[in-house]
Design goal:
Radius of gyration: 13 Å
Oligomer: single chain
Length: 114
């Protein structure tokens, strides 16, 4: 059974940083490698928003809201995707989810206070 487990969320002051992780289990490395990996975020009552994508060959794409401040990366051997969040703003507060192929995690909460 494939599982994605996000971690690293928490409470941070404006301007602070967090590093989110998303670890996959029950999936073979080659399948993990070939799938695009995406971080989304969602605030209650709003649509899920795409934050960042890392494609099969390592190229990346970011939403305009997080470009420069966030960095997505992955370690295929560890079957883990990361999202480094820097210069956090209150509007970055959300539940952050990772998506690998057709699989989703349950999310990790990021709260930013002024």
């Amino acid at each position: 059974q494939v599982r994605l487990v996000e971690s690293g969320g928490g409470l941070v002051q404006t301007g602070g940083s967090l590093r989110l992780s998303c670890k996959a289990s029950g999936i073979i490395t080659s399948v993990f490698y070939t799938n695009d990996k995406v971080w989304y975020r969602q605030v209650p009552g709003k649509q899920r928003e795409l934050v960042a994508t890392i494609f099969r060959y390592g190229n990346t794409n970011y939403s305009d809201y997080v470009k420069v401040r966030f960095t997505i990366s992955r370690d295929n051997a560890k079957k883990t995707v990361y999202l480094q969040l820097n210069s956090l703003k209150p509007e970055d507060a959300a539940v952050y989810y990772c998506d690998v192929g057709e699989y989703w995690g349950r999310g990790t909460q990021v709260t930013v206070y002024s």
